[in-house]
Amino acid sequence: MTEPLWTREAFVEATGGETSGEVADAITGISIDSRTLQPGEAFVAIKGDRLDGHDFVAAALEAGASLALVARERMADLPRDGRYVIVDDPLEALRQLGVAARARTEARIVAVTGSVGKTGTKEALRLTLERSGKVHASVASFNNHWGVPLTLARMPADTEYGVFEIGMNHAGEITPLVKMVRPHVAIITTVQPVHLEFFGSVEKIAQAKAEIFAGLEPDGVAILNRDNNQFDLLKFLATAAGVARVDTFGESAGADSVVEKVSRQPGSSSVQASILGNEITYKIGAPGRHHVKNSLAVLTAVVELGADLALAGLALADMRAPKGRGEVTRLKLSDGYFDVIDESYNANPASMKAALEVLSEAPVSRPGRRIAVLGDMRELGERSDQLHAGLFAHIADAGIDTVYCSGPHMHALWDLLPKHQRAIYAEEAAGLRNRLLEDVRPGDVIMIKGSLGSKMGPLVEALKKEYPPADETVAA
């Protein structure tokens, strides 16, 4: 019989709550969403910026929740015959549950942060470590003040490798999260001008990212990007935090894990590399130089966690870019096909450059074109227009044929584009829709990217709705 994720006794002890009603003996999972909750899972009524989980307790109980973790002050508003664990603050109780989950496991833990590439690196770690043992990892981008404790609370006691993504928008956010996770290995993918609105300088962003060192286990290892401009500062901060060892990765000859040769194919890359002195050749099943660079960090972590490097290298061939983060879809026209690269989840100067590089490498069948559909990058502060205009050089290097722009800051780029590259500019992404749908031709490769708030995702969905997906055998 499969062991439950939590017994009632362990759950109540960890959260410090008291029970009311017929709480089940076995708890199979942890949920904060009544719409996706599965029977037997505990529902945690978190109060967020827009919604309060207490308003959905009745729905969760109806869906078969083993219990609802609720605030004492809200009991009068809840069904009287419910199954409850009652606490002062459900989010704090979730944190305590996460701490208890970390304490009861012998898993080797890796935590990932960085301005760009956190989720892709986290998914690559999941993929590679699964070849060596039982892995538990964050779902989606659960990397904030509720996502990290939720991921910890969901970690089974018999986990062998834990993979956690840790994000931040402000200084001080990473420290409490990493002290819950207590990783043996910490990766900083890169530090770039992201969230400048809240920090003012890239150096301050580096200092905030370096908070990940505060939670490393005593014999922990930091893995840093040797090619990043903030490397010297990060290494100093790691040493100051008492980090036992720093491993480096990159294209620089002095890196501990270094690329020796790369061969790029449509949709993938073949890599020869040295990982902490171990020679390895592997294929990455997702396109882009940034995936090659981050694979070095992934394989370095695999070695430091004691997993099998050779099996991890083989696993990277199965890597695929997720929806909104580079997913490629082939769609059908009456007289051919075109490809859509979905980068609509988020954007900053570094990830824009990486996405434009991927577009530049994509094979195009003429008269098809390389088309960039670009929305505003958010949270860049007073340098926003300057950073948007700075994309012009990357577009020129990438050999982009046609550019669509939307958003007030992206107008700074639009002003620089030569007439032959301009498709259309609109204040909002929706203003690009009709022209984009009408202008598609066989052989096109269309990359759509912007910050989530710039609403570029609906353009991807509009193309998928207007044009049917290509037959899988043709797409392959």
- The assigned CATH architecture of the largest domain is 3-Layer(aba) Sandwich
Low-confidence stretches are 472-476
Distance, first to last CA: 41 Å
DSSP helix fraction? 25-40%
Structural class: alpha/beta
Q: Number of helix segments?
A: 18
The CATH C-level name of the largest domain is Alpha Beta
Please give a structural write-up.
InterPro entries: Mur-like_cat_sf, Mur_ligase_C, Mur_ligase_C_dom_sf, Mur_ligase_cen, Mur_ligase_N, MurCDEF_CellWall_CoF430Synth, MurE/MurF_N, UDP-N-AcMur_synth. Residues 27-74 form the Mur ligase N-terminal catalytic domain. Keywords: ATP-binding, Cell cycle, Cell division, Cell shape, Cell wall biogenesis/degradation, Cytoplasm, Ligase, Nucleotide-binding, Peptidoglycan synthesis. Involved in cell wall formation. Catalyzes the final step in the synthesis of UDP-N-acetylmuramoyl-pentapeptide, the precursor of murein. Pathway: Cell wall biogenesis; peptidoglycan biosynthesis. This protein has 476 residues and is α/β, with parallel strands linked by helices. The chain has 3 domains: 6-89, MurE/MurF, N-terminal domain (Udp-n-acetylmuramoylalanyl-d-glutamate--2,6- Diaminopimelate Ligase, Chain: A, domain 1, 3-Layer(aba) Sandwich), CATH 3.40.1390; 105-318, 3-Layer(aba) Sandwich (UDP-N-acetylmuramoyl-L-alanine:D-glutamate ligase), CATH 3.40.1190; 327-475, Mur ligase, C-terminal domain (Protein-Tyrosine Phosphatase, Chain A, Alpha-Beta Complex), CATH 3.90.190. The protein is 32% helix and 24% strand. The chain is built from 18 helices and 22 strands. Helix 3 (90-104) packs across helix 5 (147-153). The longest helix has 16 residues, at 289-304. The protein is globular. The chain starts with 5 loop residues before the first strand and ends with a helix.
